Structure formats: structure tokens, C-alpha cells
Amino acid sequence: MRYLLLAIGWLSVALGVVGIFLPLLPTTPFLLLAAACFARSSPRFHHWLVHHPKLGPWIHGYLSGEGIPLKAKVYAIALMWASIGLSCYLVPLPWARAFMLASALLVSLHILKQKTLPPRA
User: Fold this and answer.
1) Is residue 84 a contact partner of residue 53, using CB atoms and an 8 Å limit?
2) What does residue 103 show for φ and ψ, rounded to 5 degrees?
3) How far apart are CA 42 and CA 5, in angstroms?
4) Long-range pairs for 42-49 at CB < 8 Å and ≥24 separation?
5) How many alpha carbons fall within 13 Å on the CB side of residue 5?
6) What is the spatial distance between Cα 20 and Cα 107, in angstroms, rounded to a whole number?
7) In angstroms, what CA-CA distances link 101 with 3, 32, 38, 87?
8) How far apart are CA 3 and CA 45, in angstroms?
9) Per-residue confidence of the chain (121 residues) as pLDDT tens digits?
10) What is the largest CA-CA distance in the chain?
11) Beta carbons within 10 angstroms of residue 72's beta carbon
12) Does residue 2 contact residue 41 with C-beta atoms inside 8 Å?
């Protein structure tokens, strides 16, 4: 299980880094997934990611409980609903559509419940 978590963690770091440069690929969710995987598999890699000078600031506010930037909230919710909408259009099964919509609603509520970081000066 440890190696699976490490592999998912490093894949998530790679996707997060690519997301910094590609506007359609979100960075923060992948880095949060990597942090969660590393927290359960490698304290050394978790510490490296959270304290990394370029990647750490993307996830620091969420992990410390300070909040999420408004731009990140809007971006995450908009992309999630766009992808869920496309998936619902492509998937003809009503139960699958219901599951996707319920998941998107719950994730949206979770994101909206998080504190919002004030804009940086």
C-alpha cells in the first residue's frame, strides 16, 4: 500500500506541476492529493512538498486551516462542474449521472465551507 500511495503522490506532484503551466489542469487539487498520499506513506516526502519554496504555497493555506484563495475556489468549482456536465452528457446511465451530480454537489459544498484567504497585497 505504501508504494501505491507513493506512486499516486508522485504522479499527483507531476500533474500539479504541469497544471502550473497549463490553465485547464488544476494545480492545487493534485498537490493536496500528493500531500495526503505522502502523509500516509512518507513523512520525508510530505515535509519536502509542504515546505517546498514553489509548491508549498499552493497548499499551505488549506493544510494550515487558513483558507483557500477565492480564485482557486472559483476555478476548482467551475472546472469540476464543466467536467461533470460533459460527463453527464456522455454517460447515458441515470444512476451514474446521479452519482456524479451528487459527488459534485458535495465537493462544491466542501470547497465553499472552507475559509477564503484574503487577496495578497
Assistant:
1) no
2) -60, -45
3) 9
4) 42/2, 42/6, 42/9, 45/6, 45/9, 49/13
5) 13
6) 22
7) 32, 22, 29, 10
8) 13
9) 999 999 999 999 999 898 888 766 778 888 889 999 999 999 999 999 999 998 888 888 888 888 888 887 888 888 889 888 988 999 999 999 999 999 889 988 988 998 888 776 5
10) 48
11) 21
12) yes
CB 14 within 8 A of CB 55: no
At 116, give phi and psi (nearest 5°).
Answer: -105, 125
Counting Cβ atoms within 10 Å, is residue 34 exposed (0-12), middle (13-18) or buried (19+)?
A: buried
CA dihedral 89, 92, 94, 99 (to 10 degrees): -60
CB 80 within 8 A of CB 25: no
Q: Which residue has the cell 493544510?
A: 63
Residue type, 4: L
Cβ pair 114, 73 in contact under 8 A: yes
Amino acid (1-letter code) at residue 65: G
